[in-house]
Design brief:
Helix 4 packs parallel to helix 5, helix 5 runs parallel beside helix 6 and helix 9 runs parallel beside helix 10. This protein has a nine-stranded mixed sheet, covered by helices on one side. The chain has a two-stranded parallel sheet with strand order 1-2. Strands 7-8 form a two-stranded antiparallel sheet. By secondary structure, it is an alpha/beta fold. 41% of the residues are buried. The longest helix is centred in the last third of the chain and has 26 residues. It has eleven helices and 13 strands. The structure holds S-adenosyl-L-homocysteine and iron/sulfur cluster. The site of iron/sulfur cluster (SF4) has 11 residues, from loops.
Length: 396
């Protein structure tokens, strides 16, 4: 197939493509179809033909997971060569990759200096596996039991950076092309670093890309967005994304939730529960997940289990009991297994499914925010050693 290149559409500021340094090439990974169309128009493809070209490239990227323009056999050689001069199919850099004995995989990804974020793949027993993606680097909220909460917000991740997390996991799991049969990565959960509802536009854009049936094809019902309770954004989340909702509840009264999830002071339980009841499309097939971290002696009594049941009444809900994952410096401890099971029994008996999330990947610091913090710490200690060495040599 030949490509007609109408060079009059090339922006006048554009340099001779042949001389464009490889390092200034921008990646097409994470771009929407409209953005890819703009990119090919900028390369000189006639606007009339640009949509079709963009669609072809888009499919190569998101269905086949292409890493190289050469495989795009339905695109003429000329355009492929031109694409190569200005663009790449690079993913952001994986600066650390860890595989746990239990199969959990974790990647620490860097997309720009200081922009490091984590993605964790958790294989499940029931032929499904969830990828836990980050939506921000750090978090502005300060939930007292959460390690990410101790890290300042660096910035929101872009839709491209969110989609790239899925691409990297798919690469590593060797799951291209994007066929649905027997895949390990079946679900996406926005439960990594950051508060997704403080970055809703990019999260929604990423969900549009991830769920597109012609590409990565992970349906909206298999995508769950977890929030600490940004009530005014709940409806928008539902209408824009159609994603499943998870709420980080962790306490059944305002007094305690104000401490564990300080955002509760802004949006207390009554408002939160009203916002959840109004979430678009809730029904028994589309339940809200309530996450409840089990903190020893803090929120794990039978009375609190009963209070939880009362709070949920009338809401199509399931409960996820999360054993607290300790991190260096935390004052909290995980509840005993007996206590967690007693709590789960009360919730179960009231008719709610309340699985206890088995701790995964503890050997690879799978709790959110831990790996990035280790990396920052390591670099800080290397920098410190270098400074000391320099100071020592200056003294001599
Ligand atoms: N900011 C969003 C999503 C990221 S946190 C939110 O708060 O919902 C994903 C889930 O992990 C939340 O339910 C959070 O409360 C929980 N979590 C955070 N730190 C944890 C820890 N150390 N142990 C267990 N669960 C934790
Ligand atoms: Fe942020 Fe969620 Fe951690 Fe709270 S639990 S600090 S909202 S990442």
């Amino acid at each position: 197939m030949t490509v007609t290149l109408d060079l009059s559409h090339r922006p006048s500021a554009a340099a001779d493509p042949v001389s464009t340094p490889m390092s200034t090439r921008t990646s097409l990974v994470g771009l929407t179809l409209a953005e890819m169309r703009e990119a090919v128009i900028a390369l000189g493809v006639e606007p009339k033909k640009a949509k079709m070209r963009a669609q072809q490239i888009w499919r190569w990227v998101y269905f086949f997971g292409a890493r190289d323009f050469d495989v795009m056999t339905d695109i003429g050689k000329d355009l492929r060569a031109l694409l190569e001069t200005r663009h790449s199919l690079d993913r952001p850099e994986v600066i650390e990759r860890l595989v746990s004995a239990d199969g959990t995989r974790k990647w620490l990804i860097r997309s720009a200096p200081g922009v490091e974020f984590e993605t964790v793949f958790i294989p499940d027993v029931a032929r499904s596996g969830a990828l836990c993606v980050s939506s921000q680097v750090g978090c502005t909220l300060t939930c007292t039991f959460c390690h990410t909460g101790t890290q300042k917000l660096v910035r929101n991740l872009t839709a491209a950076e969110i989609v790239a997390q899925v691409m990297i996991a798919r690469d590593d799991l060797d799951e291209w092309p994007s066929t649905t049969d027997g895949r390990a990565l079946t679900n996406i959960v926005f439960m990594g670093m950051g508060e997704p509802l403080y970055n809703l536009d990019e999260v929604a854009k990423a969900i549009d890309l991830i769920s597109d049936g012609e590409g990565i094809s992970i349906g909206r019902r298999r995508i769950t967005v977890s929030t600490s309770g940004v009530v005014p954004k709940l409806e928008e989340l539902g209408t824009k994304t159609g994603a499943m909702l998870a709420i980080s509840l962790h306490a059944t009264n305002d007094e305690l939730r104000d401490v564990l999830v300080p955002l509760n002071k802004k949006y207390p339980l009554e408002e939160l529960m009203a916002g959840i009841r109004a979430y678009p499309g809730l029904n028994n097939a589309k339940r809200v997940t309530f996450e409840y971290v089990m903190l020893k002696g803090v929120n794990d009594s039978p009375a609190e289990a009963r209070a939880l049941v009362k709070l949920l009444s009338g809401i199509p809900a399931k409960v996820n009991l999360i054993p607290f994952n300790p991190w260096p410096g935390t004052a909290y401890e995980c509840s005993d297994w007996k206590t967690i099971h007693a709590f789960a029994d009360i919730v179960n008996r009231a008719g709610y499914s309340a699985p206890i999330r088995t701790p995964r990947g503890r050997d690879i610091l799978a709790a959110c925010g831990q790996l990035r913090s280790e990396s920052v710490k390591t670099r800080a200690s290397v920098a410190m050693k270098e400074r000391l060495a320099m100071a020592a040599s200056e003294e001599v």
